[in-house]
Specification:
Blueprint: H1 5-8, E1 40-48, E2 60-62, E3 71-74, E4 78-85, E5 93-96, E6 120-126, E7 131-137, E8 148-154, E9 164-173, E10 218-221, E11 231-234, E12 239-246, E13 253-257, E14 262-267, E15 270-277, E16 279-282, E17 287-293, E18 299-306, E19 314-320, E20 359-367, E21 374-376, E22 387-389, E23 394-401, E24 407-411, E25 416-418, E26 421-423, E27 425-428, E28 433-440, E29 446-451, H2 454-458, E30 462-467
Parallel strand pairs: 1-4, 3-8, 9-12, 11-19, 20-23, 22-30
Antiparallel strand pairs: 1-2, 4-6, 5-7, 7-8, 9-10, 12-17, 13-16, 13-18, 14-15, 14-17, 18-19, 20-21, 23-28, 24-27, 24-29, 25-26, 29-30
The chain binds copper (II) ion.
Length: 468
């Protein structure tokens, strides 16, 4: 049996105890989902998969597609998605980055009851603001089985010009069942360990910290390994918008393209002043949109290289019309300009989240004292206090990372300011790295705030942000 500790134990930590689902334990009334018939409807079936790059019996997919089918809607539309659970476990869907009404946020036992095997659930939300998002299961380690897909909310009036676009979903791929890192403490004897290559990197043996990361079978771009890369065909003179999604569970990628610089136009879906970079790195849950100007004919590789893993890069091919399809793509050079958060300037107003905050949390990110759990300010979820805020407040969270590994911290239900950018996921670098986020408390409810490294989340690196 797969461990779903984060799922089954979550309710215990909630205000109101086991019954603390979408109820109203603090007297705060969450926003209602949009009423009336949806402008667009989609159906997604979550089921064990057959159509994958690998041969894993533990791959679970939406509509048997890896990545899941693209959901594309227009800005402002009311979207209905009917999820049918054909899995042997309970599940849910989270609309990562989109500030939906609390009851639609898809965190089992926090914002909804889990969707039981054989059951279905109708999600409804307004597609606003526009941007590059993704959807994924928020139950246990299901994301690492392949339950994720892109969600694109098209702008009415983009702030950058382009002729065509491609969505590029990056993922890490397991050939066996994902296991919680806690099992690593038992010398690989846990369930689901069959057939796994390698082992824990680190662990407490020898005094090393447990920097658990699974041994992935490979990295994929749009569900395809580097031996069979997706091809993005372009014509000379075009400007191409590439929507990059890091849908992985535990991989930070460095992304670059042969022969072309990126003009970064959006961070986590939100428009930024276009800024040029040869490469960018992004952690699990982050997205960047990049414009590429097709002014260098040929066949070029777009490579996404794991920053901390040893797996081969995921690869795509940028091919100009008329180029032979048997030409080997030219790999990226070692460009010098890597995007930094400080390069990002939000196009939108940051009114309400500039100036001094009404409330500040100082949170240390660290390894738990037992050597495998992960803590926020010394507390390991679900044995962790909620962070209480009030509607209308400007809330600041200062994070300091006392561990050597990066933590991609994600806030549900809200965008936040980081530097001069607006995002929903921020990587706090290891070795005393710091990041500060500011957000306006404008979406009442109980919201998850957690590390988007799935194995850190599962090992306790989460809190509930609670409106009181
Ligand atoms: Cu983490």
């Amino acid at each position: 049996m797969a461990g779903l500790a984060g799922c089954t134990s979550l309710a215990d930590s909630l205000p109101g105890g086991d019954s603390g689902l979408t109820g109203d334990p603090t007297g705060v009334t969450p926003r209602a989902p949009p009423s009336g018939p949806p402008d667009k409807t989609f159906e997604l079936a979550a089921a064990p998969g057959t159509d994958t790059v690998g041969v894993s019996p533990s791959t679970w997919l939406y509509d048997d597609a890896f990545s899941g089918p693209e959901i594309r809607v227009s800005e402002g539309e009311v979207v209905g998605v009917s999820l049918t659970n054909e899995l042997p476990d309970e599940t849910s869907i989270h609309w990562h980055g989109l500030p939906v009404a609390n009851a639609m946020d898809g965190v089992p036992n926090l914002t909804q009851a889990p969707v039981e095997p054989g059951d279905s659930f109708d999600y409804r939300f307004r597609a606003d603001p526009p941007g590059t998002y993704f959807y994924h299961s928020h139950a246990g380690l299901q994301l690492d089985r392949g339950l994720a897909g892109p969600l694109i909310v098209a702008e009415d009036e983009p702030h950058v010009d382009y002729d065509d676009e491609f969505v590029i979903v990056l993922d890490d791929y397991l050939s066996s069942e994902p296991r919680p890192s806690a099992n690593e403490a038992e010398a690989g004897s846990g369930p689901g360990g069959r057939g796994r290559g390698g082992g824990p990197r680190g662990g407490m043996r020898g005094g090393m910290m447990n920097d658990y990361r699974p041994s992935y079978a490979g990295m994929v771009m749009n569900g395809r390994g580097s031996g069979d890369p997706p091809v993005f065909e372009v014509s000379e003179g075009e400007r191409i918008r590439l929507r990059f999604v890091n849908a992985s569970s535990a991989t930070t990628f460095r992304v670059s393209s042969g022969g072309h610089a990126f003009e970064i136009s959006h961070a986590d879906g939100r428009p930024v002043e276009p800024v040029s970079a040869d490469s960018f790195t992004f952690g699990p849950g982050e997205r960047y949109d990049a414009i590429v100007t097709a002014n260098n004919p040929g066949t070029w590789a777009i490579d996404a290289t794991p920053v901390r893993g040893s797996e081969p890069s995921a690869r795509g091919v940028l091919r100009y019309a008329g180029e032979s399809d048997d030409r080997t793509p030219t790999a990226p050079g070692t460009g010098s300009r890597t995007l930094q958060y400080d390069d990002l300037r939000a196009v939108e107003s940051i009114n309400g989240i500039d100036g001094s905050p009404d409330r500040t949390f100082d949170l240390a990110l660290s390894q738990g004292s037992d050597g495998y759990s992960w803590a926020i300010d010394g507390q390991v979820f679900p044995d962790a206090d909620p962070l209480d805020i009030r509607e209308g407040e400007h809330v600041r969270i200062r994070m300091r990372n006392h561990s050597p590994v990066p933590h991609p911290m994600h806030l549900h239900g809200h965008f936040f300011r980081v530097g001069d950018a607006v995002k929903d996921t921020v990587v706090v670098p290891g070795r005393m790295g710091e990041e500060t986020i500011d957000f306006k408390a404008d979406n009442p409810g109980n919201w998850f705030f957690h590390c988007h490294n799935l194995y850190h989340l599962e090992a306790g690196m989460a809190r509930v942000i609670r409106y009181v």
